[in-house]
Structure to design on (476 residues):
């Protein structure tokens, strides 16, 4: 899958627009694969992180093991994690997604727990005093107040995942990393530049879109500074 | 894929063990000691150089509380640029081998170092600074004896983030024809040798976790005991404060 390298082309332009115009379909397919891989990873990550966060809030002793395990997962380099999974699940999308999901967990759980922990006790006491049960209090009072921090976590998770998806091309899962890898192997700059630029552009666009969603969902918080 | 069919995990693991037990894998240019040495030296050189270049100005700007938006946003920008892309783009600039790897790793180390150095210094309470001045310290004495020690946990968290990220990305440098432990993974994938892939991944994973643990230990040793409780919550790289951490 990794061919030999030619001599670096010195006069090669950074972008050959004629190549781009002839390969719009390929580029769009890579972009779509990238979005799909990212979306699945963050969605599944959130579905795992949300209940785990609630469990951590309920039983605080879970905090240390949950953060240790997700922290170690987060520390293992993406290529190594993919490589560890290849013998189990092969060069498949499952391998890519398992690795990608595992990187979102620490970010998401930390932010969900921190967001819920940040709800002022006065507010929860008032809700209890008004007769709110546990579930209703969570949904109607705590989650809305925690939303800015949770959304901040979601944004970090999405931007991080978009970057990591470029690596999954090394196990043949497409995405913009495939353009970068092909460009490297064929010594063709345009593909490298297009793949990199679209990946950065996608991350910036996704971050901005989520910020807009966050602002719309929490109109009362717009005066506060958004957390990075 | 032949060596990892379902039902043969024991066989596979014993193959991995014998890979590690093979004498040839412990000698020469492609031996484990040499690959570890390459990996560690390259990472240390990149992080060391990035610390020397970026930390003094970042600490100074944090002390002065100038250009904060820039110092904080460099991390947001850094997170959006995939390390793999930086690495391959560097190949386009300087060719394959050690040079693009070093430059790419250097570039990757910069954002967390800049942001955490700046934020660490800028977040030192005004009360603390004023106390230092009230005790008769000059500006420089206050920086050296009060502000730097107080900022240290956040600054070191930046070093840790940078180092772990660099060790991780050095693995990818095998893709651009450099050595290091990523060699086993990339070569293994190319040769469809899952045992080599898995062994390489184990080595990389252990090295990354060791880097993290070692730097945590350093942090625990050098940070003043009086600060450890106060800053426990402030060090969280993902929440609240503008400090950073990245997956790689």
């Amino acid at each position: 899958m990794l061919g030999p390298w030619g001599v670096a082309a010195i006069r090669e332009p950074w972008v050959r627009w004629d190549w781009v115009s002839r390969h719009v379909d390929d580029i769009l397919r890579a972009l779509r694969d990238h979005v799909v891989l990212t979306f699945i990873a963050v969605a599944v990550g959130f579905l795992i992180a949300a209940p785990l966060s609630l469990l951590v809030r309920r039983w605080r002793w879970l905090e240390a093991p949950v953060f240790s395990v997700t922290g170690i997962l987060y520390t293992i380099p993406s290529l190594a994690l993919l490589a560890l999974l290849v013998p189990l699940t092969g060069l498949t999308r499952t391998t890519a997604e398992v690795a990608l999901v595992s990187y979102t967990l620490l970010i998401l759980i930390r932010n969900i727990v921190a967001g819920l922990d940040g709800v002022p006790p006065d507010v929860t006491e008032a809700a209890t005093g008004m007769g709110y049960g546990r579930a209703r209090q969570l949904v109607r009072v705590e989650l809305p107040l925690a939303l800015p921090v949770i959304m901040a976590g979601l944004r970090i998770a999405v931007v991080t995942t978009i970057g990591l998806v470029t690596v999954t091309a090394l196990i043949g899962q497409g995405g913009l990393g495939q353009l970068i890898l092909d460009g490297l192997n064929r010594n063709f700059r345009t593909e490298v530049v297009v793949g990199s630029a679209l990946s950065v552009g996608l991350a910036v666009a996704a971050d901005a879109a989520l910020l807009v969603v966050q602002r719309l969902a929490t109109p009362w918080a717009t005066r506060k500074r958004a957390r990075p | 894929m032949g060596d990892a069919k379902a039902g043969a995990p024991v066989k596979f693991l014993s193959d991995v063990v014998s890979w590690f037990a093979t004498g040839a894998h412990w000698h020469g240019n492609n031996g484990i000691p040499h690959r570890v040495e390459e990996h560690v030296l390259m990472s240390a050189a990149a992080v060391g150089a990035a610390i020397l270049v970026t930390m003094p100005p970042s600490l100074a700007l944090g002390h002065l509380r100038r250009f904060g938006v820039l110092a904080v946003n460099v991390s947001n920008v850094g997170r959006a640029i995939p390390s793999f892309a930086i690495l391959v783009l560097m190949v386009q600039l300087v060719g394959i081998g050690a040079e693009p790897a070093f430059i790419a790793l250097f570039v990757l180390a910069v954002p967390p170092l800049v942001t955490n150095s700046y934020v660490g210094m800028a977040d030192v309470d005004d009360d603390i600074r004023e106390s230092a001045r009230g005790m008769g310290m000059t500006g420089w004495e206050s920086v050296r004896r009060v502000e730097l020690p107080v900022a240290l946990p956040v600054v070191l968290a930046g070093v840790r983030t940078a180092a772990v990220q660099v060790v991780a990305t050095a693995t990818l440098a095998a893709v651009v024809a450099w050595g290091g432990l990523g060699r086993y993974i990339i070569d293994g994938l190319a040769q469809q040798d899952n045992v080599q892939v898995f062994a390489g991944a184990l080595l990389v994973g252990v090295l990354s976790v060791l880097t993290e643990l070692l730097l945590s230990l350093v942090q625990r040793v050098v940070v003043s005991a009086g600060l450890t409780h106060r800053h426990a919550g402030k060090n969280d790289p993902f929440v609240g404060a503008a400090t950073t951490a990245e997956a790689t």
Summary: The first helix of chain B runs from residue 9 to 21. Residues 29-228 of chain B form a domain with the MetI-like fold fold (CATH 1.10.3720.10). Chain B touches chain A through 57 residues (CB under 8 Å). Chain B has one domain: 29-228.
